[in-house]
Structures are given as C-alpha cells and as structure tokens.
Amino acid sequence: MYQIWEGTHNISPSLESTPFNLVKYFSVKTKSEEKLLAKLEKLIRHPFKHKHLAYEALCHKSFVYDGQKMDVKDNERLEFLGDSVLGLVITDVLFRKFETYQEGELSIIKSMLIRRETLAILARDIDLGKYLFLSKGEEASGGRSRDSILANAFESLMGAIYLDGGIRSARKFILSQFKGLLKKLPHEIHTKEYKNLLQEVSHIKHKSNPVYAIISETGPDHKKHFEATVTIKGEVYGHGSGPSKKEAEKNAAKAAYEKILEEK
Predict the structure, then answer these.
(1) What is the percent of the chain with per-residue pLDDT over 90, rounded to a whole number?
(2) One of 83, 138, 200, 227 is an active-site residue; which one?
C-alpha cells in the first residue's frame, strides 16, 4: 500500500519496473528542448529526475496526431492524474486551514480554485504556453493562449511532478501556485463581499452572470429606501433592501449566495 502523504510511492530510476508501468515515451533529441525544460524546471522549482514525464506533460495531443514525433505520448493521462492530485491537495488544505467553514463554503472555494479559468490564469503566470509542444496548426490557431489547453497542461504538469517526486513535491508546487488565491477567496467570504462571491458561484454552478434590478425606491431624498432583486438565468435568487442602491444589491447578493450554498 502506498503512503502517498509521505511521498513513499516507488518510482525507480529505470521506471520500467514501477507499479505505474511507466515507459520513456519522449527522448530529448535537441539542445533547444533541453534548454526549454531546464528553464521551466527553474521557474517551477522542480528539477525532474525523470525528464520524460515533464515532456509528456507538455505534449498536446495535436503534436502526436501531427506525426512530428514517433516516440511521444500526449498529456491526457497525466491531466487525469493531475486533476485528482490537485483536488486532494486543495481539499486537504481547505479542510485544515478553515476549521470554522461549513461544507458549502469549502466546496465553493474549492470550485473557484480548481476551475478551468483559474488554472489557465495560473498557467499564464508561469508562461506555460511557451513550453508546450503543439502541432503547427494548433499553434497557428492560438493554441498557446487557449484556456482549455493551458488548464489541461497545468493539470498534466501537476501529475508529472507527483509521479516524479511524490505527493510532497506536488503539494509544494500546488501551494506555491495557489498561495495568493488561498488568501484572496477566504478573505472575500470572511469580509462578506457577497457580490464578488455570487459572481463566482453563479459562473461555477449556472454558467451565468447574476442580474440586479432595483424594484422599489421610496422615502424622501434625505432618507431613501431601496429594494433590489438578483436573478440568475431568469430565476429570482435573492431580495435585499437598504438606504442605497448599492446596499440593497449587496443584501440581495447575500441572500442569493446563501441560497446557492444550500443547492445540491
């Protein structure tokens, strides 16, 4: 049995005899490729012991189908693994760090952190697109900056780091990349920035933006009272009131956010 949190899973120097039955699919053939990988290793602070894992993580399926390399395997299997490694690490961090948060709040933060758009942003932060192996057609069509390709490659890289160095190395890399977001998102929840939170949650759960409307304005100029609603995909999710339009919308966002947290 592998004790993954201790990083004790076996990856031998040869790899052929490992439990993962890994094979060296990608042999470095040019100095430029070696330099490219060395630059990425320095950037992510993880020198790969098994270089082919890094190349596989950077190899988009279009590069394989294009027939440019005969000894290449694309990064989709590593993407599958990296997705699970990321989910485990983020879940563990949130569970330990935010002891007063309920399941709904933890789930929302996790969803915000691991969604495609977030991973693409993090991939851009390390300029990951520059290191990818793409077909000529994919590159010409803007593949190096496409969210889906960047997010998938970022997950593949996490999978490769996990296989190369164990869960400790993967955790170290993930925390270094998510450090800023792990501070920002819980802060928004703690400080009750409900409009920002609702915007994020609405995208995650409904793929839609919340729409605010002031439905009532009463009282004299010096003592106005406003009522607002917020709808998502045509359904009213929250009502709110306050002495200003901004306050009314904020309270409507709070009601909507709390309603979404209760959804399954």
Answers:
(1) 60
(2) 83
